Amino acid sequence: QTVLQGIILLPLRVICITFILLLAWLSASIATFCQPGRGFLPLKGWRRRMIQTTLSGLTRTAYFVMGFQVKVKGKVASLPEAPIFVAAPHSSFFDAIICALTGMPSIVSRAENLSTPVFGTILSSLQPVAVSRQDPDSRKNTVAEITRRALSRGQWPQVI
């Protein structure tokens, strides 16, 4: 009976997750369409709220469809309390749960990830700090950008 459930549930889950992923891509595309100062200025107003609410909700829904139920104990630190917070070890797809639960903060990511179809658009909407592995000054530039965002007095979202 469990094999039969798996045969039925797996395709349904894949279809639902694909649909959720496409909705997330559409939301990210709308929020970043004709964005002024693309990548250099923080998203503001309806664009930022759209990313926070839509992508956070869709990410939570995707994990629920996959069979994960996440319960938060305590309170997430606000931007003034913690402009930077760390999630470690960040080596799996579970990092997206942390992003969804914390209001879709900016992340630090490889620059190559931004050119990935569908995921690159979604990632770009989070306004990541892009790290170039080809640039010898990348480490210094990344630290400088994280510091600049952390000291922006709330103009930029939290950095994870």
UniProtKB/TrEMBL annotation:
Transmembrane segments: 12-34
Keyword Glycosyltransferase recorded: no
Family of this protein: Belongs to the 1-acyl-sn-glycerol-3-phosphate acyltransferase family.
Source domain of life: Eukaryota
Pfam families tied to this protein: Acyltransferase
This protein's name: PCAT2 acyltransferase
InterPro entries attached to this UniProt entry: Plipid/glycerol_acylTrfase (IPR002123)
Keyword annotations: Acyltransferase, Lipid metabolism, Membrane, Transferase, Transmembrane, Transmembrane helix
Gene Ontology annotations for the cellular component aspect, listed alphabetically: endoplasmic reticulum; membrane
Organism for this UniProt entry: Callaeas wilsoni (North Island kokako)
Localisation per UniProt entry: Membrane
